[in-house]
Amino acid sequence: MRILSILSFVLLFCSGVLAQRQLDFSGSIGISNYLGEIGGKEKNRQSFVGDMKLKSTRYVVGFHMRYRMDPVFGISFNMMYGRIAGADSNSTNFGRRYRNLHFRSPLIEASTQLEFTFFKFKKYGHSYLLTRSKGRTSIDVNAYSFIGFGGVYFNPQANLNGIWYSLQPLGTEGQGVVDGRNKYSRFTMIVPMGLGYHSTINRNLRIGFELGWRKTFTDYLDDISTTYVDPSLLSKTTAALANRTAERIAIDGTDDPNTMDYYDAGDKRGDPKHNDNYFFGVMKVGYAMPAKRRRSSGMGLGKIFGGKGSRRGYRGRSKFSRPKYRR
Predict the structure, then answer these.
(1) Which pLDDT belongs to residue 308?
(2) SS3 of 213, please?
(3) Rounded mean pLDDT of the chain?
(4) Which H, E and C letters describe 142-209, residue by residue?
(5) DSSP state of 227
(6) Are 156 and 168 in contact, with CB atoms under 8 Å apart?
(7) CB of 188 within 8 A of CB of 150?
(8) Are 67 and 75 in contact (CB under 8 A)?
(9) Burial of 246 (0-12, 13-18, 19+ CB in 10 A)
(10) What is the dihedral of CA 237, 238, 243, 248, to 10 degrees?
C-alpha cells in the first residue's frame, strides 16, 4: 500500500502544476513477455531476452499521464494491465521438457517514471488545401530513456484437467507445510527501465512507441523457484500440479513411456538465484495539452525603466487613445 500512496501523491502533484507544465494523456496497446524458469530455448536459463520464446508473447494495455518539467526531463504516471505465460513444452531443452510445467498470470502494474530526452527535433510549416492555406503545422520528435519505480500484482495459474488453478494458495513447493518455506506475496516492487520515442503532430496529437524492461524482486511470477517436495505433504491436486514429470510427454514428440522421467523430493525445480522479470513493448496515442503561459508580474526591467520590453505598459493604454501633441 505504501507504493500506491506515493503514486497517489505524485498524481496530485502533477495536477497542481498543470498551469505551469505541458501535460499529456495517452492510451497504449502492445505485447508482453517474461524471463523466468519456464520455457526458454535449447540451453539452460540465460539472462535478458536471450531466453524468451516468441510463442509466449501475450498482450498489454495501459493508460499514461506525463508532464514535462523542462525540455529535457519529464515524469510519467502509468497504469498497465497485461498477461504473461510460459510452457516447458515450447522449449527444446531436454531437462525443461521433462519438467513439463506451464503457467499464465495477469499483471496489474502501477509505476512512476523519470524520462530523459536525449534527442529532439522540431519542424514547422503550413498545410494546404488545394491553393488555399489550411493552417500552420508542426512536428515535434523526441527520443528518451526512462527509469522509475512501481509495483505489480501477479497470480500464476496452471491448468489441470481443463480447470485453471491459482498456484500461490496451493503451495506447490511446500509453502506453508515445510519448515522455512512461507507463502510468497503476489505483489512485488519493480524497477521499469527502457527507451521510448514520441512525436507531437499539430501541437496536440501525440503518438509514440516504448520498450520497457521490468526488474522485479520475486522469483515467483511463474510459481517456480526452489526444489520438489514430498508429494505426501501436499493435497492430491497440489501434488499433481507441482510435479508433472509423470505425464506422458516425450522429447521426440511421441507418447513413448521410455522417455518419461520423474523428479523426487529435493530435486531441483527452479533457480532461486535469479529473480523473474518481464518486458512490455507498446504503441501510444494521446493528447498533449498546450502549456499555459503565466503573465509577467510587471516587475521586469522593461517595466521598471519604461523600455520597449514592457508589454504591460502598452496594454495599460486604451486602444482608442491618441497621443497629444503641443504646437
Answers:
(1) 46
(2) strand
(3) 81
(4) EEEEEEEEEEEEECCEEEECCEEEECCCCCCCCCCCCCCCCCCCCEEEEEEEEEEEEEEECCCEEEEE
(5) B
(6) yes
(7) no
(8) yes
(9) exposed
(10) 10
**Nearest to residue 250, comparing CAs of 241, 242, 262, 258?**
258
In single-letter form, the type of residue at position 324 comes to: K
Catalogue all structural domains in the chain, each as residue range(s) with its CATH number. Answer: 2-294 (2.40.160.20), 297-327 (no CATH)
Does residue 46 contact residue 40 with C-beta atoms inside 8 Å? yes
Beta-carbon neighbour count of residue 17 at 10 Å? 12
61 Cβ contact partners less than 8 Å away, ≥ 6 residues apart: 27, 28, 29, 30, 80, 81, 82
Residue 274: which residues within 8 A CB-CB, separation 6 or more?
A: 45, 47, 219
Question: What CA–CA distance (Å, rounded) separates 312 from 302?
Answer: 9
| pLDDT interval class at 99 (50, 70, 90) | confident
* Per-residue confidence band for 80, with pLDDT thresholds at 50, 70 and 90: very high
CB atoms within 10 A of CB 176: 12
What percent of the chain stands above pLDDT 90?
Answer: 54
Give the burial string for 64-84 (b: 16+ CB within 10 Å, else e).
bbbbbeeeeebbbbbebebeb
- Cell numbers standing for residue 270: 527452479
Residue type, 173: E
- pLDDT for the residue numbered 154: 99
How far apart, in whole angstroms, are the C-alpha atoms of residue 259 and residue 240?
19
Question: Is there a contact between 144 and 195 (Cβ–Cβ < 8 Å)?
Answer: yes
